[in-house]
Design brief:
By secondary structure, the protein is of the alpha/beta class. It has one domain. The protein is built from eight helices and five strands. The chain has a five-stranded parallel β-sheet. Helix 2 links the parallel strand 2 and strand 3. The chain is globular. It starts with a strand and ends with a helix. This is DUF488 domain-containing protein. It comes from Natrarchaeobaculum sulfurireducens. Pfam families: DUF488-N3a.
């Protein structure tokens, strides 16, 4: 079995299999979300205060033409720590247990708004699910190692990717 993650714009491109469970994991779903998912689970979406803090910093970084505003926002608001703390709540733990049970039986898809899983809660959520299972993998669509990271200066060569950072190359 596999836990897949993607963004709403990628659902048609990556097409979950017929027997998979497809869950939206967003706090504020748009009308079409119920058409492309089996259901939306806002309890495991980021809490409102974390979303607001992230968006505020991301928008400021964009206005300042900073490279990779999502990364700046992610790090500035301690997104990973705060989201993982959110998952420790009793309601979130109940949902997490259900996702773990489902992932034992079939592929599970977690879908939200962000294209790049590096700066998205669904990566953390998928990791929390598979941490409780043997022989279950996480696959992100698109693969974050293929998404270029914005350059920080004009004298860098090529577009570095997450793979560059993982290997110590950039």
């Amino acid at each position: 079995m596999t836990v897949h993650t993607t963004y709403f714009g990628g659902v048609g491109q990556y097409e979950p299999s017929e027997g998979a469970d497809v869950f939206g994991v967003v706090r504020y779903p748009k009308e079409f979300v119920e058409r492309v998912t089996d259901r939306n689970i806002p309890a495991i979406a980021p809490p409102e205060d974390l979303l607001n803090a992230y968006k505020t910093v991301e928008e400021a970084a964009e206005e300042n033409s900073e490279p990779n505003p999502a990364a700046i926002a992610w790090n500035s608001v301690s997104y990973e720590r705060r989201y993982l703390e959110h998952l420790e709540g009793p309601g979130q733990q109940a949902v997490l247990a259900e996702l773990v049970d489902r992932a034992r039986q079939r592929d599970v898809w977690l879908i939200c708004w962000e294209k790049d899983a590096r700066w998205c809660h669904r990566r953390l959520l998928a990791n929390a699910v598979v941490a409780q299972l043997d022989d279950v993998d996480v696959v992100h669509h698109p693969d974050p190692t293929t998404i270029p990271v914005e350059e920080t200066s004009d004298d860098e060569e090529g577009d570095p990717t997450l793979a560059d950072f993982a290997s110590g190359g950039a």
